[in-house]
Design a protein that fits this description.
alpha+beta, 2 domains, 4 strands
Amino acid sequence: MGLEQYASPHLGLPMFRFTIRELVLLTVIVAMGAAWWAHQDRLKREHVEWKHRATATKMLLLGHGWQVYWDEGQTEFVKGSEQWSCPLPKDGRYVLRRR
């Protein structure tokens, strides 16, 4: 009664046997991978949603005669001689300033 009772009939090798610790570790690794994937998927969907909102806002402003310029660090709105800018906030508050 050696390893013969655990041998796989297909391979002639002993079957794999795992401890509870190994199964828990595998479960944790799979759960972390699934959580990371779900988080990345949510970020991608939010990016698409915000890009759609920004494009819709730009199209609305263009329809009313405004020009919109996106530079690094700020957004500028120009209509004739009227100019407005909105720098990226450092404290989370957006401020629209007339130039």
